[in-house]
Amino acid sequence: SLTFSETVDPSTFQAAGFTLQAGPASGVAVTLSGGTVTSLVGAVLNISLTAGDLNAVKAVQPFATAAGNLTYMLALSGAVLDFAGNPLAEVANSTALASSRVLPDVTAPVLVR
Questions:
Q1: In 1-113, which ranges are E strands?
Q2: How many Cβ atoms are within 10 Å of 27's Cβ, its own excluded?
């Protein structure tokens, strides 16, 4: 989920405009490549990430092994627009926003067929 200061137009969401980072100004990062908007509730945009993006996040050691660590978010200007057509203000590396926690993948795969 992404929470904005106002309602945004979900049809303008561009996943590649968002990057998850292991820490503020960290070089350990994953830029999203895709995703689907699943709902818009007020100023909260719910996104379903692609399997590739989810696997990329799981593969980055600081994300995959450090339970409880904060994830930081960067955003490019214009990665989403409001309904008046105003672009999202850039969230640069030096001002990365502390967002959610990434929980490690501790579930072993199971053969189903």
A1: 2-3, 8-9, 18-21, 29-31, 35-41, 44-49, 70-75, 81-82, 97-101
A2: 8
Q: How many residues does the chain have?
A: 113
10 Å CB burial of residue 54 (0-12, 13-18, 19+) is middle
The answer to whether 77 and 88 are in contact (CB under 8 A) is: yes
pLDDT tens across 65-103, in order? 554 567 788 899 999 999 999 999 999 887 888 876 655
Q: What is the pTM of this model?
A: 0.80
| Rounded average pLDDT over 25-32 | 84
C-alpha–C-alpha distance, residues 39 and 45, integer Å = 6
